[in-house]
Amino acid sequence: MEAGNQDTSTAVRELSLPIYQSKGWLRLLGVLSIVSGCLAAITIVGILYAWLPIWVGVLLLQAASSVERAYLSGSKEVLFDSLGKLKLYFIIQGVTTLIGLMVAAITLFFTGLGAIFGILQ
Prior knowledge:
Blueprint: H1 2-21, H2 23-42, H3 51-73, H4 76-120
């Protein structure tokens, strides 16, 4: 039974190594995201969406801490927790990017429409 635990612990360390090595970058992105959310909260319009970068920053900081604990302890559950937080981060970033692209496309469309009507008059 002890050998099975040792094998699992070694596998967790090996699998978490790439993320463990980039935990500094995760923390940096997390802090920068929180700072940008706080700066956005200062403005009237920014207060509507400032919670999103703050949430994403907290997720990144939690993921960095979890992957560090997983690497040091060899715990499979802690590694899954870290990967779950990273998964949620990528989902949020993907949805946010899609919404941004749709807003940009709609803005471009109506700007072009306005330019056409402006030329016709």
